[in-house]
Design a protein that fits this description.
single chain, 548 residues, alpha/beta, Rossmann fold, GMP Synthetase, Chain A, domain 3, 6-stranded mixed sheet, 6-stranded antiparallel sheet, globular
């Protein structure tokens, strides 16, 4: 059982649960979570009720005698009970690992083998079975925990939680095929939350719709923004996010005043339900993160909600995020790249060139290195990968301070802010020429009627590579020929940067986190080659452009 001293009465504390439950001290009856339980009947959980749930779950966890610092898998969608349980893990001195109920079983078993959790938790309707006998299993509900298989008991080596302990581990895709666990301490998370709240993005009167799944770190950002501001978090069920009319219904019925999510959540709504979006008169804030927002879609969103404050959030899972910058309203036609601003208070962005020198001149490309108290502790059980991401401070390596090498490219603007310019791994070589895939995609979205685009390099059947692009056009542009897009690119881009293949799609497929599913696009493009498998669940409008 953990032995954590109480926080001083005038402090919000250094642990996740203390910080996020602080509004319960002065606004216990304020709504903390507003759920769309069923159409027309939103369900509200107050801060006092959320705190009571945390008490129940923390008592249940303490009774199991799990050692301080042990890992607990939380497999759930975002609900009031799931939020209470992750806060209870914090109070009990345990590290939670959020995973999706839709996660393939072999991948979950891989995480179990890697993280060696003491306990697996799921809601009453959870369907996960056949977990290793070394893992305890339980279900959580209004009455507390229902233990199915008690976790193994060991002689505790630790009893007192520390702010430097891991608060959670987020598992992301790894380049080796093995899930990569990003370990975030309480101290790092709270430092980030404080830096984020300094931007005054939300007020206690706000209701912040979170459209990201619980296992995506953006969801934890949304939770921290809402509860840290004394506002309400509105978790949007994942099976409704991808359906515009259902998404808008949830926003309307819950009274959402702000919507946070990846840019792709708006694509179908802008295309099929613009009038209903324009009618959401309570919506006054939009925050996006995870990918670049296609500028045509962003301008259309501003036209429909001209009074909304739109914020570009930039950052990586390894620091939760890094910066917040208001999008100019209206967005000038001359803008080609959005500013990501500067790092949040308490953090600093550095640019480092290919030779390892710090870039100080405006307009010179460099890799973003982040100095921040909100950096992750490391990748779980992967010291080599940790050493490649947490590197000595390039300005003073003698200090022993580490900074995050992000793999993101940017330039410093004349006004001192930064503009994101893509990834180091999105710079590809085509016939000996360096090509930035983001620049190709941005040019394609400048085409009249284009709403979104992505570019990638794919292997040719006979060897070599081809630059391939996938483009979404407005519904009234269905008659466009892909050759027109290639010619459009060729007017301003070098010949080697003009896509050789262009696919027109009804939509860009997305992963569970809402990012473009590049693997599925590659599989679909492979269907054009002899003997390849069918394209899969995409609505293809036209075939590839013949090579000129």
């Amino acid at each position: 059982m953990s032995q954590q001293p109480p926080a001083p009465a005038d402090s919000v504390g250094e642990f996740l649960h203390e910080f996020l439950l602080d509004p319960a001290r002065h606004s216990p009856d304020a709504p903390a979570v507003v759920e769309s339980a069923q159409p027309g009947h939103p369900l509200t959980t107050t801060y006092a009720e959320l705190g009571a749930l945390v008490d129940v779950y923390a008592a249940g966890l303490d009774a199991l005698g799990i050692e301080t610092g042990a890992r607990v898998i939380l497999e759930s969608d975002t609900t009031a009970h799931a939020l209470a349980l992750l806060l209870a893990c914090s109070r009990a001195g345990l590290t939670f690992i959020p995973v999706s109920p839709e996660m393939p079983h072999p991948r979950l078993l891989s995480i179990v083998a890697t993280a060696r959790p003491a306990l697996h938790l799921q809601p009453p309707d959870g369907t996960r079975t056949d977990l290793p006998h070394t893992v305890g299993t339980a279900r959580f509900g209004p009455t507390g925990l229902t233990i199915e298989r008690a976790p193994e008991r060991h002689t505790p080596r630790r009893r007192v939680p520390c702010a430097t302990d891991p608060a959670y581990i987020i598992f992301t895709s790894g380049t080796t095929g093995r899930p990569k666990g990003v370990v975030m301490s309480h101290r790092a998370v709270i430092a980030f939350y404080r830096g984020m709240l300094a931007h005054r993005i939300a007020t206690p009167e706000d209701r912040i719709a979170s459209t990201s799944p619980l296992h995506f770190d953006f969801s934890l950002l949304n939770i921290g923004l809402a509860l840290g501001s004394g506002a309400s978090v509105v978790p949007v069920p994942q099976d409704l996010v991808r359906w515009p009319r259902h998404l808008l219904r949830v926003l309307r019925e819950t009274g959402a005043t702000q919507v946070n999510g990846v840019p792709s959540i708006w694509r179908q709504t802008l295309r099929y339900e613009p009038e209903r979006l324009a009618a959401l008169d309570r919506l006054r804030g939009i925050l996006f993160c995870g990918e670049e927002f296609p500028l045509p879609e962003l301008r259309r969103l501003q036209q429909l909600r001209p009074d909304a404050r739109i914020i570009n959030c930039y950052g990586a899972t390894e620091s939760m995020a890094c910066s917040f910058k208001d999008v100019p309203n209206p967005l000038p036609d001359t803008v080609e790249r959005l500013s990501i601003g500067i790092a949040h208070p308490g953090a600093e962005i550095l640019l480092v060139d290919e030779t390892g020198n710090v870039v100080t001149e405006p307009g010179v490309l460099g890799e973003i290195h982040l100095r921040s108290p909100a950096l992750f502790s490391g990748y779980w059980d992967d010291p080599a990968a940790t050493r490649s991401a947490l590197v000595p401070d390039p300005l003073c390596p003698q200090s022993g301070q580490l900074v995050l090498r992000t793999g993101d490219l940017a330039v410093r603007r004349e006004d001192g802010e930064f503009a994101f310019c893509g990834r180091t791994d999105s710079q590809v070589q085509i016939n000996g020429n360096r090509v930035e895939l983001g620049e190709v995609a941005r040019r394609l979205t400048d085409f009249p009627g284009a709403t979104a685009a992505t570019a990638m390099v794919l292997p040719r059947p006979d060897g070599g590579v081809r630059l391939t692009a996938f483009v979404v056009l407005a519904a009234d542009q269905a008659g466009t020929d892909p050759a027109e897009l290639r010619d459009f690119c060729a007017r301003t881009l070098p010949a080697y940067m003009a896509p050789q293949d262009i696919e027109l799609l009804d939509r860009l497929p997305t992963t569970a986190n809402g990012k473009v599913d590049r693997a599925l696009l590659a599989d679909m493009a492979g269907a054009d080659r002899p003997g390849a498998a069918p394209a899969g669940p995409l609505d293809r409008v036209r075939r590839p452009t013949p090579e000129k």
